[in-house]
Structure formats: structure tokens, C-alpha cells
Amino acid sequence: MKNYLENSKTTTSSALPGGLRTYLTLFWSMLTISTFTFGGGFVIISLMKKKFVEDLHWLTEEEVLDLTAIAQSAPGALAVNAAIIFGYRIKKLPGAIAAVLGTIIPPVAIISLISICYEQFRDNRIIALALQVMRAGVAAVIFDVVITLIENLFHAKQPFLILLAAAAFTASFFFQVSSIVIILICAVIGLLMTLRKKYHTNTVEKGGRAS
Hints:
Blueprint: H1 2-7, H2 20-35, H3 41-55, H4 61-73, H5 78-116, H6 118-123, H7 125-155, H8 159-173, H9 179-210
Helix pairs in contact: 2-3, 2-5, 3-5, 3-7, 4-5
């Protein structure tokens, strides 16, 4: 994973500002995203994609898809995992630290405040109604992420991956197969595909040198 993060090619690496400005931009971007994100990790992934791909042009959609898969497969909160991986991809370890700090400060502050005033929050009808309404927006954002990921799979023109995604959805939704089992199976399949591709590449290279 580390080799992928270090060696994968960023389309517009020249778009990165130099010096301290990169870390400040990364920190502030994650701080604002985390502050106004409700609904879990996939919502923040969508906002990170818009910020780092569409606005800043620091990453490509293909990289976001790959980094999201890594973040989802790793243990822990998806938002924090994504911040670590995205930050590391952009500016190595200092970038990861800046991104994580920007990500965790808002929820820690908000949860600390809510814990102090928990009784008032729990019994407040206005807050309860606001949270219910926000669920609709969260569902829409998550749906947008799903559609984007599916579009990227079709653009990759690999029917096997599309079938694998459909099979994973069917196993999870209809047969209640544990997501842990699905992730592990997909990881093994991905490893086998990588080894097969590497073996094929080495075979072609040896054949070319022999000729």
C-alpha cells in the first residue's frame, strides 16, 4: 500500500502550492469538510472528491477510487482513514498529520459540547426534527458517491469488476453476508489479480529479451 501511495502518478502534481501553504490548505480543507459533514465516512469521501479532484486538482478520480477502497478496507473510522491516506498521498507523513488534525478537531469539539448539554439535546424537538431532515440529505450524498464509484467501474472497462461489485451487493443486501467476509474475499481476489498481472508482465518481458 505504501508503495502505491508513493509511486502512483498524480495528474496535476504541479497544482500543489509550495511550502507551508500546501499543509495549511490541506488542513483547512479537511477542517471545513469535517465541520459540515453529517452522515458518516462516505459523505466525507464525496466532499473530499469534490475538493481535491474538482476544485484543487490535486488528485484524479481514479486515485480517489483506489484510495477510498484502501480506506474502507483498513480498520477504524472511514473518515479518519481517508484523511490519513489522502493526506499521505498528497504530502507524505506531514500531509497525513495535517489532514487528520483537520478531520478530528470538529467532531471532538462538537461531541464534547453535546456531552455537556446531552439532556437538552436529547429532549429538544427542534434538534430532533433537524436531524431527521438531514438524513434525507445524507442519503442523497451517499447515493451520489455510489453512482460515481459505479461510473468509474464502467469507465475502467473491466466486466469482472462490475460483476464482482454486483455479487458483493447481492451477498450483503439479500443474504446478509458480513461485510468483513466480503472485504476479505475481494482483497484475496485483488491480490490474485495483481500477482497474475505481474506474472504475465514478467513473462512478456522475458520473452522480449529472449527474442
